[in-house]
Amino acid sequence: MHRATESIISRRTFVLSGSIAAFAPVSPVFARTARAMLTITEPSGNVRALEEADIAALPWQEITTRTRWTEGVQTFRGPFLKDVLTGGGMSRSDLAGRNLLMKALNDFGIVVPADDAWNYDPILAREMNGKLMRVRDKGPLWLVYPRDQRPELQNAVMDERWIWQLFEITVL
User: For the domain that residue 112 is a member of, what is the CATH number?
Assistant: First the structure.
């Protein structure tokens, strides 16, 4: 019984501390990234926060392919992953052999080789079939590979890399 009381007290303390933290002032760094559609943390520790306009300003590509999660052929549009990664000054050689920890809004994370950006030309799809993707439609960003055009991409290992609701990339 005594342990249960300690557990309840510690939970209450935890909840209370979280409530207090909710009213604490927001740091300028967090405030800046709160509007970001995608945050990229580079190996140097530099953090780039890309907003909707930053994604829209990049050259967009189109991939028409089937997916394991949708019916029939879909058309996706968005910038190449390589353009997003190198937009802040990193080069292909800076990223060669590195991995990307990609995180979704639901805390799902997957590690993807950075070389995929050049080996397979995936895009960060912002549109599907001409419509902006919303969170409930796997948006706002979905890493999409040209699956139908590349037979080597048609397997379970590669399918796991199709992270949707992407909001954060950390270069490892």
Answer: 3.90.420.10
